[in-house]
UniProtKB/TrEMBL annotation:
PROSITE patterns tied to this protein: HTH_TETR_2
Organism encoding this protein: Rhodococcus oxybenzonivorans
MF terms in GO: DNA-binding transcription factor activity; transcription cis-regulatory region binding
Residue span(s) of domain HTH tetR-type: 14-74
UniProt protein name: TetR family transcriptional regulator
Amino acid sequence: MIDDRTEPVRTRDPARRYRILTATADLVARNGFNSVSMADIGAASGITGSAIYRHFDSKSAVLVELFDIAIDRLLADAERTLDSGIGLEQALRELVDGQIEFVVGKREVAQVYHNEIHNLPEDDRRRLRRKQRLYIEEWVHLVDELRTDLDDGEARAVVHAAIGALQSTLFHSVGLPVERLRQILADSALAVLGVSSTTT
């Protein structure tokens, strides 16, 4: 007699993958990439270190996915904002809000990206840097259109200064309530961009 029962197909648990990504961001932000082992990540994720290899080939592969998710989200939000047809000033406000969500809402990922991208394989590092440049170009495009008093080089300088202002609190705690911090960061970046912090 032929047993036509089939073995259940094992699927990778997306919730477990998310826990691995979250644990990696937290551990690497606190301790640095080279001080965190797969066993550490596994323990923080509630699995063994060896079980991580069912999801990721290496520790750097975990970082690559973390960074891809973060940059893809920023880039998609920026493209959606530019395609929405809203006014230039409001579009810049939304880009600022998106960057604040990254810096404040995804603080550990932002810290790790800033400090650890050099630990990635060169091909991944270059690919991520290209995405980052595309994201910056969305900002520059808006500033070029809005600030006709600036040439392209000046517009780029303004954009980098604004993003620098937003990322200025990544590595120290200012002790402010989160919503107050978000407001101060938004006001500071918009002032650099030459945009009113309130709609008229």
